[in-house]
Amino acid sequence: MPTTAIDTPILKAPFPWFGGKSRAAHLIWPRFGDPANYVEPFAGSLAVLLRRPTSPKNEIINDLDCYVANAWRAVCKSPQEVAGYCDWPVNEADLHARHRWLHRQMEFRKKMEHDPDYFDARIAGWWIWGLSCWIGDNFCRPSRQDALPHLTGGKGVARKVPHLTGGKGVARKVPHLTGGQGVARKVPHLTGGQGGRCVSARTLIVDNAPSATSNGRSRSGSQSENLRTWFLALADRLRFTKIVCGDWTRVLTKAATWGQGITAILLDPPYDAGGHSDVYGELSRGVSSKVREWAIENGDNSLLRICLCGYESEHAMPTGWECVAWKATGGYGNQSGNGNALRERLWFSPACLRPQTDRMLF
């Protein structure tokens, strides 16, 4: 892998993710430097890890969501197979059928939590495809009643599916009714690399993306070929990354962190402020405060460079911690007028490096 910020290609996750920190990565890495060890207890889309400006060393990522952990494991171990399952046209009937099927995979969930080498390529591909097609949030996130979002009395997608809205919401956007607008912008083989937040040829490698022609094909090959190339690039980048599925504390032991030397830790838990429990699921409630307690308890460790993410009023950190403001895209779906975009903060522990200047992204 290249070792300079100029030469390193920037990769992106093949699925959209609520609360990703891609726009904050340029503030985080100058304070992390080039640590011997890097840990993400809340992996999500790996937006910061994938923007590391230097060659990776020891890296550990974790996510309690077994579908997230499985997606990254499967992309690492069987990228072309996962890409094949992702390569499917937008179809609402398939979307809900696959969602129901994914939601019922209880044995898969148990294996993910107890077998560090287990993964399922079909589940990974269908989950990535489904998350990329879904309107709203809560895809494969069980509610308190263990119900699916589109069956919960108007929550999430139920407000937007065409047969429930009389032509409102997504009915105006499905690809076969709009000539490629709306949902069609967000799937790899229908976009020609244009628009969207998720799987598209444009986001293959941001700095070296193949240019697209007017007929929706890339000059460097078909959309299917570009998709497989993208997943192979991700697999190569993450080939030495350890992927854990479980509680966030599992990867914050001494052996996993400062026992490996200087360690950078990105703590990006589900925010307590802002009412995001419906997005992250029931198990996310109260996690942010527990993460803050861990960060404060370990903040004076000279071998730990900690970055804690949250809203401006969410964390009161001790003297010596640096607070940096940054601007997000405006919330899920890039909603206009979302005040939360201006509330984003990063808190850096005393052992973090202090760059002389920052270019704030507003």
Could you describe the 3D structure shown?
This protein folds into two domains: 22-64 and 246-348, Rossmann fold; 69-237, no CATH class. It contains twelve helices and seven strands. It has helices at 25-32, 66-77, 79-86, 92-103, 106-114, 121-133, 162-165, 175-178, 188-191, 223-237, 277-280, 287-298; strands at 37-40, 58-63, 242-245, 263-267, 304-311, 322-325, 344-348. It has a seven-stranded mixed beta sheet with strand order 3-2-1-4-5-7-6, with helices on both faces. Helix 2 packs across helix 5 (106-114), helix 2 (66-77) packs across helix 6 and helix 3 runs antiparallel to helix 10 (223-237). The longest helix is centred in the middle third of the chain and has 15 residues, at 223-237. It is globular.
Provide a count of the helices.
Answer: 12
Strand order across the biggest sheet?
3-2-1-4-5-7-6
Order of helices and strands: HEEHHHHHHHHHEEHHEEE
Global outline: globular
Name the quaternary structure.
single chain
Q: Count up the domains.
A: 2
Could you describe the largest sheet, including whether it forms a barrel? 7 strands, mixed
Give the DSSP E fraction (strand runs of 2 or more residues).
5-15%
Query: In angstroms, what separates the terminal alpha carbons?
Result: 31 Å
Task: Give Rg in angstroms.
Answer: 20 Å
Report the average pLDDT across residues.
77
How many distinct beta strands? Answer: 7
Write the layout of secondary structure elements.
Blueprint: H1 25-32, E1 37-40, E2 58-63, H2 66-77, H3 79-86, H4 92-103, H5 106-114, H6 121-133, H7 162-165, H8 175-178, H9 188-191, H10 223-237, E3 242-245, E4 263-267, H11 277-280, H12 287-298, E5 304-311, E6 322-325, E7 344-348
Parallel strand pairs: 1-2, 1-4, 2-3, 4-5
Antiparallel strand pairs: 5-7, 6-7
Helix pairs in contact: 2-3, 2-5, 2-6, 3-6, 3-10, 4-6
